[in-house]
Amino acid sequence: MEGKIQVKNWFRKDLKTKILSVLIAIFTWIIVSNLTNPMVSRTFNNIPVTILNEDFLDENDYTLKSAIRNYVDVTIRGRQETVEKVKIGDFLATVDYSQITSVSSRALELAELDCLVNGVVIESYTPTSIPIQLARNKVGTFEVVLENNITMKPGYVLYNTSLSQGTMQIFGEESKINSVDSIKAVLELKDLDRDTTKQVPCKVYDKAGREIPEFSKNLTVNVKVEVAKEVPISLVTRGRLAADYIETSRLINPQKVLVRGSTEAMEAVDDIKTEQVDIDTIDSNYAASVGLVVPDGLELVNSPDEITVNINIEKLVVRNIEFGSDDINILNARNDATLIYEIITDRLLLQFKGRQAEVSAIRADSLRPAVDVAGLEEGTHKLQLSINVPSQAKLLQKVYADVKISKTPEVENPPDVIEEP
After folding, report:
1. How high is the mean pLDDT in each 10-residue block of the chain (421 residues)?
2. 332 secondary structure, DSSP code
3. 401 and 342 in contact (C-beta within 8 Å)?
4. Cis preceding linkage at 421, omega within 30
5. Contact 315/244 with Cβ under 8 angstroms?
6. What was the pLDDT predicted at 348?
7. Helix residue ranges, H only, 67-149
8. DSSP 8-state class, residue 208
9. Alpha-carbon distance 403 to 381, whole Å?
């Protein structure tokens, strides 16, 4: 009990002096600290900003029109020894994309900056918000238009073209997507004679016809090109028409067909033949549908498997033309007046066979009948008549004329007349 009273008396003894000593010690410590480790401020530039909820843009179909500022400048304050230990990596600066409320949002507020080093405080930082400029994203679906610039090898035709995809989707800023007018794929091929598939670059155009390069980049489509060969049809017939009949026209419809097959098969075919048509002894016009014989390895495309055949025939007629002896010319007669030439056949009959219209058009004066007496002497001669036969008619038989050749009689001189005195 007595010991407790002594301790209590010790604390009470010179209490003011003791409090003053403590205050002097604290003050001295503060002065020494400020002299040896003073409070200082320091500015750090280009502190990186971490983006939070970056997927928020895609999830809400937003896009940034330009890159945002992703750094800030920070000023801190603390004891010199502590401040000097701070590094750029000791700061945590963040901005959260989930702050965006609409496409018209123009700035994102930075979260309160934090320094991971104890003993320092952040006095200020700039900027306190980051400006942004947003656009709404959109997916547009557009038809792919194929423009062909294809030249074909002679005899071949372009049968079909097909695209690996008829439409394409383009993702981008809404205003730009709304300006898109078309997607075009231009195919360039020369002297094509076989099927082929080619990867073709696509170009995106706006409504003014200008290309939009940012959408055209890496945009391609596969184009499958199929060709066919155009070949004539050959009508196959057997037999002969009835006697005295002639074929005036032979019409088939169509006259050509398209075939497809392997490259080798198309290259080898020159025509497509019909099934055999029997025209033996027919004496009237013929009309029928006739099938086509397609070689193995080929198929008809865009063409019928039967054609219509029309064969028109006409009965030949005979026309008789008569000439008198005076109508026949004598060729190569002597011109020394020593021989007399006389055609003694009174009438000559010429028979022509042909189509009605053609034989009816023969003019008698165009036939120019004649006999050739070159080198012949006195006597009666049977000579073949030469005729200018029209090409559209046929002379049924050879025609002969009898020609008599005789000497010219000698003329006797009259007796001399003696005049009487």
Report:
1. 56 61 62 70 94 91 88 94 92 94 91 91 92 90 95 96 95 90 96 96 95 93 97 96 94 97 96 96 95 96 96 95 93 91 93 93 92 93 93 91 91 60 53
2. S
3. no
4. no
5. yes
6. 93
7. 80-83
8. T
9. 5
List the structure tokens of 298. Answer: 């080929």
Q: For residue 20, what is the enclosing H or E element?
A: helix 15-36
Under 8 Å between Cβ of 111 and 98: no
User: Has this prediction a pTM greater than 0.70?
Assistant: no
The CB density around residue 295, as the number of other CB atoms within 10 Å, is 12
Q: What is the pLDDT of residue 32?
A: 53
Q: Give me the amino acid identity at 14.
A: D
3-state secondary structure of 166: coil
Cβ-Cβ contacts under 8 Å for 169 (sequence gap 6 or more): 139, 140, 141, 142
CA angle 284, 286, 292 (to 5 degrees): 160
pLDDT for res 12:
58
pLDDT in tens, 145-170: 999 999 999 999 999 999 999 999 99
**Rounded CA separation 9/7 (Å):** 5
Token pair 């098969």 is at which residue?
Answer: 265
Q: Which two tokens stand for residue 244?
A: 């005295």
| CB-based contact 370:420 (threshold 8 Å) | no
Asked whether the beta carbons of 161 and 147 are under 8 A apart, the reply is no
Q: Which residues contact 378 (CB under 8 A, 6 or more apart)?
A: 339, 405, 406, 407
